[in-house]
Design a protein that fits this description.
The protein is an alpha/beta fold. The chain has 13 helices and ten strands. The protein has one domain: Aldolase class I (TIM Barrel, Alpha-Beta Barrel), CATH 3.20.20. Helices cover 47% and strands 12% of the residues. Helix 2 links the parallel strand 4 and strand 5. The relative contact order is 0.13.
């Protein structure tokens, strides 16, 4: 569950209400595509914009729609007691694991974050993925904090930010982190444009935004980078790099507008969700950016994927 492709679907809204039918459709597509796990209520799932009741409904819908694919559920919240209640809800819904980012209005210290994970992991009966997302949380993990949190019970994986673009630097970066972690704790890369490099550099998993909407090209990157074939690792890395390069127009849109807005626009273009699908005050893309999203979909042939919805 903590290796391969973990797909993060949108939590679409319609008229300021979670569109459970559309969400269930997104999750069902991921199960049919054969992703390794599904992570509901990640940043792509707009978890922090939803109240507890909405998040409970989404967690239950994800588990019910995922078939045999294991489901992880995001439990981040501003207060530790809220995180603990959300963890209980996720476990009661049947989640196979939970995902936790340290979020706060006031700036957090390392001791604050260590205390959060210590308190939450103590009450878990399922594994936990540590979510390091400084672009959103404004909190940066140190290597020492990685090591201290990874030693806690129930910690199974760390979702790291994008690795350096240079393959050698990326490999050194991943190796440095891995040396600090217990053997059972995996490393997952985020930042979709860096996924091929991260997996090739030794990451075990890709925690993927676009995998939650376009699982087939995401699987091509993942399987290529993790391939252990007779030609050796280099061939797999080349396959993954080529598959990622085909998505460069999408990666550029991500850089300019953020992955959530772009993914929502793509899902709306494909007819998988009804627009506008983001929680206000988040606004969707303007007309010019939407035209680029549509052009990307047509170039990739993504429109044909709606047949599996």
């Amino acid at each position: 569950m903590f290796t391969g492709l973990s797909a993060f679907p949108l939590t679409p809204l319609r008229d300021d209400t979670v569109d459970l039918k559309a969400f269930e459709g997104l999750v069902g597509r991921l199960d049919a595509a054969g992703v390794d796990s599904i992570t509901a209520l990640g940043s792509t799932g707009s978890y922090l914009y939803l109240d507890r009741d909405e998040r409970r409904l989404v967690a239950r819908a994800a588990v019910a729609s995922a078939g045999a694919t294991p489901v992880m559920v995001g439990i981040g919240a501003l207060r530790t007691s809220q995180v603990q209640r959300l963890a209980d809800d996720a476990q009661e819904a049947g989640a196979a694991a939970v995902l936790l980012a340290p979020v706060s209005y006031q700036a957090l210290t390392d001791d604050d974050v260590l205390g959060l994970y210590t308190d939450v992991t103590a009450g878990l009966s399922v594994p936990l993925v540590v979510y390091d997302n400084p672009g959103t949380t404004r909190f940066t993990f140190t290597d020492d904090l990685y090591a201290r949190i990874a030693a806690l019970p129930n910690v199974a994986s760390i979702k790291i930010p994008p690795v350096p673009a240079d393959p050698a630097e990326a490999a050194a970066h991943v190796q440095r982190i891995r040396a600090l972690l217990p053997e059972h704790v995996t490393i997952g890369v985020s930042g979709d444009s860096a996924a091929a490099t991260g997996l090739g550099a030794g990451c075990d998993a890709w925690y993927s935004v676009i995998g939650g909407l376009l699982p087939e090209p995401a699987l091509a990157i993942t399987r290529g980078a993790l391939a252990d074939d007779a030609a050796g690792d280099a061939a797999g890395r080349e396959t993954a790099a080529a598959a990622s390069a085909r998505l460069e127009p999408l990666w550029q849109l991500f850089r300019e507008h953020g992955s959530l807005r772009v993914t929502a626009a793509l899902a709306e273009h494909l007819g998988l969700v009804t627009g506008p699908s983001l929680p206000l005050p988040l606004r969707g893309l303007d007309a010019a950016a939407r035209a680029r999203v549509a052009a990307f979909a047509e170039t990739l042939g993504a429109d044909s994927q709606t047949a599996t919805a």
